[in-house]
Amino acid sequence: MSVAGPADKRSNLQTKDNAMKSITHWSAAGAALLLSLQLNLTAADADGVDPGLLKLPPPAGGQQYVEVNIRQNLIGLVARAAEAQEPEIARMLREIRGIRVSVVGLDDSNRGEINEQFSRLRTSLTSAEWDAVATVRDGSENVHVFVKTRGEEAIEGVVVQVQDDHGEAILVSVTGNLRPEQIGMLGERFDIEPLKKIGRKIERP
User: Fold this and answer.
1) Alpha-carbon distance 65 to 59, whole Å?
2) In the sheet that 96-105 helps form, which strands lie side by side, from edge to edge?
């Protein structure tokens, strides 16, 4: 059995710090870095739903593909950092246990597969008593928002599908008490463009 010395502990702390910086300064390049490093982050699974439906399959033709999973301990670090200056943001973040975002470019090679997966996911969410709270259609783009509630106020999870047949598909799963209208705020906090995009669509009159 080996015992970590001071140098190892400093290295572990540095690794966690680097991961935090990668997430809070999100970009397409940052997403690729997260994927290449294969960070061990826990996924945000939806209650009563097959976790496999919450992960978009990578395309075979080299299209855009991004996946990020953020677990609760990293979210907690951001909440503590925001507490003094942005208490509202800190309170929101403390209610979240996990975030998963998948983005995949669409073309003829994978459009049918993604359509089928999104349809199966909507059926599965409905069967598991998730509520469809918003459907937005804007040209070729469709947005579906589902929430899992507990009682009259608390929300246990949010799942959002965004699909533009001429562009990309986005799948977001958030575990925890988050109102759909807070998704854009979450995207701003972590600088995750797909969440910002979804937030703008949900807030649109």
Assistant:
1) 7
2) 65-71, 96-105, 168-176, 154-164, 141-150, 131-138
Spatial CA neighbour of 56 closest among 43, 39, 42, 40: 43
Taking only the tens of pLDDT, the chain with its 205 residues reads 444 455 454 444 443 344 334 333 333 333 333 333 233 333 455 566 777 788 888 777 777 888 888 888 888 998 999 888 989 889 889 989 888 889 999 888 888 889 999 999 999 999 998 999 888 888 778 889 898 887 776 788 889 899 987 789 999 998 888 877 788 888 888 787 777 877 777 766 5
**E strands in the chain:** 65-71, 96-105, 131-138, 141-150, 154-164, 168-176
Retrieve residue 136's tokens.
Answer: 């937005």
Please report, for residues 85, 155, 183, 194, the alpha-carbon distance to residue 134 in angstroms, rounded to integers and kept in the order given. Answer: 32, 15, 13, 17
Inter-residue contact 113 to 163 (CB < 8 Å): no
Backbone angles phi and psi of 172, in degrees to 5: -125, 130
CA distance 177 to 155: 4
pTM, two decimals, is 0.70
For 3, counting Cβ atoms within 10 Å of its Cβ (0-12 exposed, 13-18 middle, 19+ buried), the class is: exposed
* Count of CB atoms situated within 10 Å of the CB of 90: 18
